[in-house]
Design a protein that fits this description.
mainly beta, six-stranded antiparallel sheet, 6 strands, about 45% strand, disordered C terminus
């Protein structure tokens, strides 16, 4: 369930999005962070204040916990899911980052 405060801050940024090649998606970073998952395509993800850029291929997932603005650019036509990151619970698997270069 998405919190009302998160919806007010990030609104339409959450959910499944189809991006044409070279299109970008801006995502505000909620307190708990966001998870970006690439269902198909290839995505370049960068976050303000993070010196690393990340390239995610289909099936890749990245959890960003920083507070800076996140910008994702489709390097090819892509389907992307953006979700609120949940705190990891003891005994449960957390999100895993699959990053390709």
């Amino acid at each position: 369930m998405i919190s009302r405060r998160l919806l007010e801050r990030t609104g339409r940024e959450l959910g499944v999005r189809d991006l044409a090649r070279r299109r970008t998606l801006r995502v505000g970073s909620p307190r708990g962070g966001v998870v970006i998952r690439v269902e198909r395509g290839l995505l370049l993800v960068t976050q303000a204040g993070d010196p690393e850029d990340h390239v995610l291929a289909a099936g890749g997932e990245l959890r960003l916990t920083g507070r800076g603005l996140v910008v994702a650019e489709a390097l090819e036509a892509s389907r992307v899911t953006v979700a609120e990151a949940r705190a990891e619970l003891p005994g449960r698997l957390g999100f895993r980052a699959i990053v390709t270069s």
